[in-house]
Structure prediction request, 405 residues.
Amino acid sequence: MINEQIGRLKNLKHFLEAILALIIYRYPGRQLKVIGVTGTDGKTTTVHLIYHLLNTADKKVAFISTVGAKIGKKEIDTGFHVTTPNPWHVQKILRQLVNQKIEYVVLESTSHGLDQHRLLGCNFSIGVLTNITHEHLDYHRTFKRYLKAKAKLFKNVKIAILNRDDKHFNYLKRVAKKAQVISYGIKKKADFTPQNFKFKTSLVGEYNQYNCLAAIATASSLGIEEKVIRKAIQSFKPVKGRMEEIKEGQKFRVIVDFAHTPNSLKQTLKTLRSQIPSKSRLITVFGCAGERDREKRPMMGKIATELADLTVLTAEDPRTEDVDEIINQIAKGCQKGGGVEDKTFFRVPDRQEAINFAIQKLAKKNDIVVICGKGHEKSICFGKKELPWRDQKAAKKALGVRLRS
Prediction:
């Protein structure tokens, strides 16, 4: 009861802060066509895809995503571990967009951002859903609340772009009753599928097929020609930290990916598993964030053990939690998936040492090492401190030692 009252007070504070930001920056969302993208996984790539499609079509467009914000050629860092910035930052950027005569803005819309009123007054014209799977239950407490937070995006949009294959499609369609609903999918009949809208992309994995279809449906709803859409999809380059390959001349592959949820880890490992040469191995390095959803830790351990040949468990923003205890919780899932400690899964709490171990001790010719969880991020959090960190840099350091030995 007390926790609920505290939650309501915090929510009121967020609401009042958002109202004040709207007043200070003079409600810029009214003068823009705002496209919101929400979902558990794939938001950032879909935001960048939509931006690229509109930019290719010569539209005046900007975006705000996990990786940052882009206004014309200017890029803005939105924070260390941030998807949707606070309302002051959001409204300030939207005001800049209006001043620069930008017409469209593609905005990554997280469940936290929607629940905490950070996006109040954005006046979304289009809402786009990637998918909804297990995540953020540390904050939302129940999956139902998480789903309702995501659904807020679709209540007043003019157009709702929904994943027909997501099991929450019908619920979100009901929420978006005022909108024109446009569906996309691969497994079920939808308005946009790989069969009725053929395209080529350099992005790998089925999950990226979904991301491309979401962007295609969005661009089509805005009247962009099919030939322009196909050209843009084909020319799109992967977002930094998403299946980013590190090449230093080694005889095995090293990949950095942002996968940090059960579903994204599963999709990443399934995609890489399909690319492995026979008799070669898939090696994954990952951890789970401290002070975040604890339920997903054993889930991810089980997924890793079932899909990867070797798993190295390590730190990923432990914050004030004990790294070893977080790893213990992941390890329980590894054991449930049939993993054997020190044979198929290993505990190396220090992230640099874990990457060193995977690259210098485990990897052999034609293997794939995938380092998951940090992706584009530039810091790692221990206690209350953000320390400089890049998985890409750590991987190159480990490779440098191996190649010199």
